[in-house]
């Protein structure tokens, strides 16, 4: 005798899942770091303003934020290129300011992408091809300690004045460090994982794609993030001397004219842009490293 399905399930109690507080907890977890960031910035600004109010800081040398940010439109006039210096409207100034920020950001982005791709490829080639590694690794180790700033004359000799020297400087600031880091991370891949791949009959290409690359990428992204801030320092120096435009050039203008308000205004733009760049990099890292708990982000 067959049981009627309607009879079997007639008295079954329907249990509805309890409302989960997960979305709310995720929102709180994301808002807490933001709150601490705002509090940290507020404390810094308050201390600066207090030092000005107490007379400890000369407003001509160390103007507080409410002074150098108050005249936003007038400070933006300094970002207008010399070929359009006759146009001094606020719209032109703000457009020039935005173009300056975008130009510097693109130089940093181009150098970082080129440096990351080339250095990872170089590190893999050094470890996968013994003869190539024996010929190139000593030279890379020799060049790695040289400060990126020391490469500035070489960049100008090779590329002249323009965007290329700045991109090259960012590239150099990352290339050697990332190459050495790639080699180190490949050497530290778990032997157990490599042995399991070998037992399963994986080829060298399959082992690299499914074992080595997922193992080294989290650490390489962290190295990239740490070098992001160094890349911003380098590109500003390159712009000040070898490009003739960009945020670095405005910093040099502020120094030459002894304009402390413009100097701190530009430093604020650099800090905000660099912070946004770091946030964007962490978002990319979270998407790329989807298999890693917390995506190797830390805090």
Automatic annotation (TrEMBL):
Record keywords, A-Z: Cell membrane, Membrane, Transmembrane, Transmembrane helix, Transport
An example Gene Ontology CC term for this record: plasma membrane
One Pfam family hit: BPD_transp_1
Location of this chain's protein in the cell: Cell membrane
Gene3D superfamilies, alphabetized: MetI-like (1.10.3720.10)
Superkingdom to which the source organism belongs: Bacteria
The protein's name in its UniProt record: Nitrate import permease protein NrtB
Organism: Paraburkholderia phenoliruptrix
